[in-house]
Amino acid sequence: MNKNVLGKWVFAMGMAVLAAVVPMGCDSGTGDDSELDNYFANHPTVSDPRDGGSGVVSITPDTVIVNTVGGRAVFAFNGGTAPYTWDVADSSKGTISGSGAQGVYTATVVGENDVIAYDREGRAAIAKVTGSSGSSSGGELAISASPSTLDAYGSMAVIKATGGVAPYSWAVADGLKGGFVGPDTTGSSVVYSRNAAGDNAVTVTDSTGARASVVIVQP
What we know:
Elements: H1 3-21, H2 34-42, E1 58-60, E2 63-65, E3 72-78, E4 85-88, E5 94-99, E6 102-107, E7 113-118, E8 124-130, E9 142-146, E10 156-162, E11 169-172, E12 178-180, E13 189-194, E14 200-205, E15 211-216
Parallel strand pairs: 2-8
Antiparallel strand pairs: 1-3, 3-6, 4-7, 5-6, 7-8, 9-10, 10-13, 11-14, 12-13, 14-15
């Protein structure tokens, strides 16, 4: 056999073996991707970051836990070119409302979902929502903020109550410095948005009258 032909044959066989052993594409690490597959199939102008084509943009945090119906999480879209669009892979499990580079996810069903955001050029990023309805409640009322420091106007934080007895009511110490996003303030969590500099406090009261507060640092 001609040496050139033999060399080409050996190279082709080697590439075939490599293709069989090494999977092509990029795994997003999100587990069952059927909903994501359907989403990107129905949005052909949006790049699928699992293919490695959207490295210039990202969503933070990349994973959140939401254990209650009505529970919320705040995401930030990093990089890219405004305007930005926010969406979810499975709208039967949750919704997301975008405010520029920030999006607020609200769970309608406790479980796994994917948040997708993309910029004007169609460059997309994915974040994961997980949760378990088996999480227990009750006990002493407590409150937490994530994040607890807001540096800029319009920055948002999720304020979450644990323990106590639902329903809850929420209040801010100074409405000029910040307020809640959306009209529903009876669930176990709310989204707080900064309006002006100066530390502020958020207080939750449960149905028995127990109260707990957290300070939001706003330099």
